[in-house]
Queue: 3 jobs
Job 1
Amino acid sequence: MSQLIDVKCTHIENELMRVRFANTQIISDHPAQWGGSDSGPAPGELVIMALAAATALAGRRYANCSGLVVGHIGARASMTSLQEGMPDSLRHLPLPFLTYVDRFWRLLEIEGNLTSDERNGLVEAMADNGIARTIRDGIKIDEAVVFSRPSPGSRRPAGNDPGNQLLKGRASLAAGEIRVASQGNNWQVGAAALDEHTCLVKMTGALHVVGDSIASLRGAIPEEMLLGGLASCTCIYIARNAQFHDIAVDAVSVRVRTQLPVDPSQPITQVEKIAEITGEFTEEEAAKLTAFAQYCAFGVTLGRGTAIEDSLAFDETNHPTVAPTGLASLDRSPPTPNDPAYCTDGSCCVPVFEKQAS
């Protein structure tokens, strides 16, 4: 029987958001240079945390079920994002361009005394876990935006927060024009499976425990992290763009839910996303806010499907001279696997802009 997972993100102030899972919560944020306070993982980091954790857990499950003698099983993940000029059909939207992730990168880490067939079976299980298949195949997002009036004594409007002024006056790209928004020059997140139920995920300045199921009470599960990335990306996209368009928003929250596949190797194919925006809005402002909710970076990314390129780090303990094999050559160079340098500038999901000449 499938299980409903339900994730809710609430905007607090500036780039700060609270993401609630079934048994825990996490603060999502951006560094100070992007208007945040560096209090937690950015929305993009939540997505690659989900990918890395699901990959490591899938490997440990396969190894245990197959009776493989394996020491370390882990994964690192990163991504690159692009900005693309709006096609003619979307030029009416109050956005200068679409931002989306163009490529996810993964390094599969395996240590153990394995035959070639055992290693290849383990690699396949890690590469084709449910989160990876969801990202590659894309999902259908059922969008809804609900507007409500503020209650007496509501907090200071988010639209008037000082926030991030770097994106004010963003120039539009021509239709079809594409430029790199952020490049994964290093592995942003690393994950290690402690056992088949528990994964330790490392990002800049913090460690997070990710569990294999809600019932295990070992932290958020990868599917919750993925939905949390979508919810927080939508939430901050609404709040930030409302500020840039001088729309006073009293509160923003985004809820994403789906039926979890019974088999963890199967992808999520459809989610329901509901954005609730509180304030007094004109029809024009409501239309703009609806557009922000529907065209956030990870909504676009997950809606279209995105390639994942894998490389393998294999340590055959008894035969260290054996070269790693098992994966095809990449069509682009992956991030260099330096450790422990992960995303430190917020570029995982906030576009980096060159300063305009005065």
Job 2
Amino acid sequence: MKVTILDGRSSVDSSDYERQLAAILSDMQKHYDVEIYSINDMNLKYCTGCWSCWWKTPGECSIKDGADAIFKSVIHSDFLLLASPMIAGFVSSELKKIMDRLIVLLHPYIQMINGESHHNKRYDSYPSLGVLLAREAGSDEEDMKITEGLFKRFSLNFHGELKFVRWIEDWNIEGFDNETAGC
């Protein structure tokens, strides 16, 4: 199984998050083909909403900053793991930045799913999704519930099944397998 990990740490994150993610990466590399992208280290730009990826150069982002490698890895993965510390009750701006840019993997055309408008698929298959969050001071289950709801919406539009949203300290490699990942 191929796993792509998008690390949304920012420059102000604690070493606890980095240590926990490094341990997860080490465990996963023993069992799976893993690619990890540390968004903060890549100096990626924000989506400008130019729609070039839909109309001018379908499936290709007009911003040339290295994100194309992420897009290719994500669409060729069986599982996409999004990891981020909680910042002001949500994921980091680094992770949100690349999440917005994943729109390149969808068509601009709309279809109805459960009575709602969502983008059509550009590709035949999309990876299942998981989200790992590191608590910030004051994080609670309400923050987790709100964030989980937002990722349910993201996964629906992305055509990938959301398998879990959990705190990073609750990660257990034994609980993650092909069945859990939906592969």
Job 3
Amino acid sequence: MEAAIEVSYSDFPQTWGKSPETWGPSSVRRIIDHIYRTGARRIHWRISCSGDFNYPTRVRGAGKAYAVNVDFGRCQGGIDFNEFDSLRVAVDHAHDKGMQLVAWLDQMDSHYSPDATATVSQFLRDHPQFAHRLRGGKPPAEPGCWTSSISYTEVVEYRLETIRELVNDYGVDGLYLVFVDQIGYEEPNVDSFRVTYGQDPNQIPEDDPRWIAHRAQEVLLPYLRRVKEVIQHSGRPVELTIEGQGSVVGSAKSLPDEPGWSGIPSFAKANEIIQAARPTIAEEELAEVLVYWSFTDLEQAADDLRGKIGLGTRYRIWQRKTPQELRARLEGAAARGVRLFTINEATPIEMFQQWDLIRGLLADLR
């Protein structure tokens, strides 16, 4: 089982302070050095906070690097990721140390309420007509959940341009795609369902298997095939990992506690559209790894995936975790045949100074 540690947009400018250690290229090298000392050799590097990017991308229509325009006390004026190319430094430093750097791409355009600390992407601000829609064609009530939908050709091309830049220009070793609500009641999906089934999907239950399968077959799978084409055209071995978060049928049912993790959040539920696409993903080898947060979902996926593509899981340690909890989670994942165990994310490890703990646990696992 391979271990990875995720680095989010806030992990390398620790405490948001501008100093030689906490800002600029040295801050990137510092967090990667910490991860290296744990024994992990794989980094999942978040390229945005689900909005504008935290590196100076050249993708057309994208925000020219994520910036925080507030006074955090330690950092007058906030952090502007245009000041240096954090991704270039990260890829080069990881490779110098013999590590893999995987680009973590939330397939969203916002993450929190659009305020001073996070923004809806420039792309979605410029193209609100391509937004994901809920039942009845309404946008989500919470602006922080707004995102563009890959149901539209223009959005697919925008996301593929980002992937080309990461694969061809930056030389990342892998892509980690996270899907939440990118495929909903957008007009193209409603129209195509009507043509196929003679019904308006707004007039049937949200969990109707035909509606879920339709979006998987007509939207998600064609998009994944395009992603694989980009990778193949690069001529490089770039691993593709796919994760689906959260129910798409409005379920608020909580997940039961599991080894090493109590109070599992609702976003850790398996995404039904990814579930519907899973047999085809495995058959066509559209990914190398398919990720589930919950052990229950892992066990259900094993029959479809084992021997075809790998299983992965993500473990959120945003709050302090005991050695016993971490060990239980690692051992439980290994027992379930997990190939990739990802720790989400570096901020709490740094905050609670648990680098030595992680190193010891990973050494025991090996």
